[in-house]
Write a structure and sequence with these properties.
Blueprint lengths: L26 E4 L5 E6 L7 E6 L10 E2 L10 E9 L5 E7 L6 E5 L11 E3 L6
Antiparallel strand pairs: 1-2, 2-3, 3-4, 5-6, 6-7, 7-8
């Protein structure tokens, strides 16, 4: 295969986010500052959701980071249902619990580009 201009395609490289079967794909979110966060459910024990960040279009993607474990045992999460940027630049995610129709989990960053707070159980996709 060739790209436009006759240049050959480069070899595909693993992206590092690999959700399990039936857990949805990767969700990209572009923040107001132009940075992009990529989210996906995790297959790694002790991790429920993972994120990678890219500060600007020409930058490399940062390392895969865990958003921590949901505080209940044997919980699987699907891809994020909502990603919201709060006025102060923090992100908040709402994620549907896999195999349960009425349970959602929410997590919010403690500071912009910083660590994430604890997961909280909520009953609607638009958690408060």
């Amino acid at each position: 295969m060739q790209r436009a201009g006759g240049h050959a395609w480069t070899t595909a490289r693993p992206f590092g986010l690999a959700p399990g079967p039936y857990m949805g794909g990767v969700v990209l979110f572009k923040k107001a500052d132009g940075s992009i966060d990529a989210f996906a459910s995790s297959r790694t024990p002790g991790r429920s959701m993972e994120v990678r960040r890219r500060q600007s279009p020409g930058d490399m993607w940062g390392p895969v980071e865990s958003l921590g474990q949901v505080p209940e045992a044997n919980i699987g999460l699907s891809r994020p249902k909502t990603v919201t940027e709060l006025p102060d630049g923090r992100l908040s995610l709402t994620v549907h619990e896999r195999n349960r129709d009425t349970r959602y989990w929410q997590i919010t960053q403690a500071s912009p580009q910083g660590p994430w707070g604890p997961w909280q159980l909520c009953s609607v996709p638009q958690c408060a």
